[in-house]
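Pasting as-is:
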Amino acid sequence: MLNDEIVDEVRAIRDAHAAKFNYDLRAIYADLKKSEAEHIAAGHPFIPPPSVPPVPDSVLQRTRFARR
């Protein structure tokens, strides 16, 4: 498999962030929520995720998600 520079960089950043919190998922989540709250307080727009997943409306989407 070919190595993609962008994917490698994202994985390295993600690993460094996780290592900063000793790979503790609760601490990572708390940090992400804190960062999210800071961005919202700074006036950045926040769009909440949909409460219900969207219904596929094309043949491609129906076949792509049929195996889930």
